[in-house]
Every structure is written in structure tokens, then in C-alpha cells.
Amino acid sequence: MKPYHIKSLAAWALALACGTAIGYAQAWHSTESFVLAQDSVQLKTPEILLARLDAAVSLTAAQKSKATKIFAQQSADLQALLAEDNSTTAKELDQMLKAVKIRTAARAQVRAMLTAEQQNKYNRTPQTQGGGQTMNADNRVARLDADVSLTAEQKPIAHAIYEEEAEALLAFAPEERPAKGRQARQSRIELIDALLTPEQRAKQASLQHIGSAQVAEEKAFVEREVRSSKAIATLVGTITNLSSSRSVINELKGKFRNGSYAFSVTGTNRSETVVVYWQRTLPAAELKVVKIEDSNGRTIQPSSTQSL
In whole angstroms, what is the distance from residue 37 CA to residue 39 CA? Predict the structure, then answer.
């Protein structure tokens, strides 16, 4: 059945009652954010990954050969990662973040070797079934329900709103979604807001305020660390301009938060991009910088003793 682009809650409800099918969904934020699972570094064999991918998109013989090499390299990289020291919280979280990057890079390589039709299937198939889907409406509805306690009537409508957003976002390449997906994200925000009761909106706003305050607090701490870093001063001279270009924020089962900020730093001697890795323990809220790297990935400052 042809998807409908529904612009009002009444139309949403009517379409759902009539069984209208609407594509997959999830918001795509300019600040990359995701929750790490405790088993995120565990390995699956290249043979299992290849079989799942083949079942999902029907690979040709040539594609199987390419995919085998991609999965073999991913397996080798993850195996090497597992051998690294993870005896401290900082090292464990850094290890899991590296695992996410390895898998993300492998998915990008797989996506690049597929045809347009195969990519369409791959993007809409869960990773547990061999696909590369990074957007899941079920999970987003569950998170919203946990925050505001959705009614039975609200849940399917919220699910359809998230699905419609993802269908619009999937029309863009992953790297284009932050900029080109603004309209889809804004439409989702307005529709979800209209769906909620005044009491639910107030609860959501309160949670968003707490979350925003936490992020602002973390970013301010990291910026202070950058400005006071002797290693960065040695690299660029006295800092004259500092701007954040990207960030990654992760949370592990309410126990830890960690992430990184990339800064473009202009000094009296030169300009440099640095990446600051940080972590905090929850709920104690201890916050510290784990390390700072230059644009070549070289550690210029090890773990900071400062904390919030």
C-alpha cells in the first residue's frame, strides 16, 4: 500500500484505523548520541555476518567475496580490541566506543558495495538480521513511554510519526541527514507535541531541561579543560578562538556517561583540531577528561585529575 504523508493527528488516526503502512523511523541528531550495550565488543564470526547479510539482501558471488573481506577485517580489529587493557572504567568505555566505530566503518563499507535496491533493504533491516538499520521506531516509542507514560491509543500514533520521519531521512545519505533532515525532524517534534496531553508535555519538558542542563554542564567543563590545557597551549600558542565542531555522547545503563568533543582551536602560533574524551560516573556525577588527541590521533594530554 502506498505510504501517506499525514499532516494532522486526525489523519494519522484515520490512516492507522484503515491499516495504512508507513516506512521506518528515528530522529537523526547533529549531535551523535547512542546507548552502549554491555556486550558491544563481543564478536560474531565473519561467516555468521555474511550469512545474515546474504539473507537480508541476496548478495552476488562478487559481493560475497568483498563482504567476506570486510567482515574478516572487522573481526580482526575487534579481536585486537578485546586484547587491550580495560581494567578501569575509562579504559572499558573507550574500548566500547572504539568497537562502535569499527562496526560503523564496516557498515559504511558494506553499504558502498550494494546496489541501490540492496541498500534500501539493508537500511530497513535490523542489524540482528544482517542489515544496517540504525533507526528503530519501537525503541523510540518505548523511550517516550518511559518518559511520559503513553496511553494505548497514543502508542501506535507515536510509532507512525517516528516511522514517517525515518522514511524521509532515509532518502538522504547518512552524512547528509543532519543538515537536510531538519524539516522531517521538525515535523516529528510538532506532531509528537500535539499528540501529548498538557501534563505529558510538562513532564517531557522537565526531563529535556534536565538533560540539556547536563549536556551544557559537560560541554562547559570540557571547554574549560581545553582553554587551560598546557599541552594545547604548547601546540597552538595562546588560544584566540575556540569552536566545537562535533560531539559524541554515550550512556551505559545509567552507570556511566562518556563521549568526546572535537574543537577547532585557533592560537597565536597556529590552528589545530583537537578531540577531548571525557567520562563521568553516575549518579555521583564525577566528571573528568580521559585524554586529548590532536588531528593525527596522537595523545597530547593523558587523563586529567580535574573533576566536576
Answer: 5
Q: Convert the pLDDT of each residue in 212-258 to its tens digit.
A: 778 888 889 999 999 999 999 999 999 999 988 777 777 665 667 88
pTM over 0.90: no
Give the span between the Cα atoms of 226 and 229, in whole angstroms: 5
Left if phi > 0, otherwise alpha if psi is -120 to 50, otherwise beta: which for 246?
beta
Q: Which tens digit of pLDDT belongs to each residue from 276-308? A: 988 887 766 678 888 898 888 888 988 654 444
DSSP string, 12-74: HHHHHHTT----------SSEEEEPPTTTT----HHHHHHHHHHHH---HHHHHHHHHHHHHH
Residues ≥6 apart with Cβ < 8 Å to 307? 286, 287, 288
3-class secondary-structure state, position 291: strand
Containing 121, the helix (H) or strand (E) segment is: helix 116-123
| Cβ neighbours of residue 177 closer than 8 Å, sequence gap 6 or more | 28, 169
State the pLDDT at residue 6: 38
> Is the bond into 3 cis (omega within 30 degrees of 0)?
no
Task: Indicate the pairing of strand 239-252 with strand 271-281.
Answer: unpaired
User: And the C-alpha cell for 206?
Assistant: 522537565
Place of cell 587493557: 85
Nearest CA among 183, 186, 181, 192 for reference residue 137? 192
pLDDT of residue 288: 86
281: cell is 560516573
